[in-house]
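dude i think i finally got it to work??
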Amino acid sequence: MVTVSLQRPVNRTVPALGKNNDKIRRLHHDLTHQQTCIVLTKSRYSSGESNVTAHVPIQPVRTCDDKRRVADMRAEAFYENSHFDRFISTYKKKFSDTEYDRLMRSVDVADTSVVGTFVALDQSTPEGMILGCMDVLRASPQVVETSSGIDLEGWYYIKNVVVDPKHRRQGIARQMLLSVEERIRCSSTLSGFTQGIFVHVELCNIDAVALYKSVGYEYEDSSVASGPVSVGVMALLLKTL
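look at this
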């Protein structure tokens, strides 16, 4: 199974489940802590792709139905490796509803836009099944600290990369990354500025790290690679375009 690089929201609220919910809150904390790190012993990106999918179109998310499907996909991925099940359905619904509201508030972008939520579509299905999704943001001033002093203002930031479980190990995440990179290159050519792209990944997320390195991302701080691999240890990977 391929690990996705879905990142946990900074501010996450436990669903209101009644007045006496201390126990539920503790369970929610344990659950989210457990799923933070998924250690895999074998990376498909170092051993070769299997069942690689032919090129699929990557485009900004459009319809309300697609936004709901993206929200549901992210909720499933977020709680995918939880070891508790008593309140999972409640947590998933809360997560999905919150994500859907965010997507609905976002401004629809043009087909040539670089910033937004993008989806990989299987156009062989009548409804255009969503195979994967990812967010692309623009870095604001003084938002990202780097040990090397690299100025990332104006760079693009990848987050919330998710691939449908039935379509993993098919190169879809790779296609999404390369498609977004091409959009950024076109934007850079028009603007005259050289730009880059970066992502934060937990080091224990072996497949996610391997994915980004396979398309040319490098550690901002090379010493991170030789450090401890444990829950919560983050790495900044970047790529100049």
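The radius of gyration is 18 Å.
im so relieved honestly
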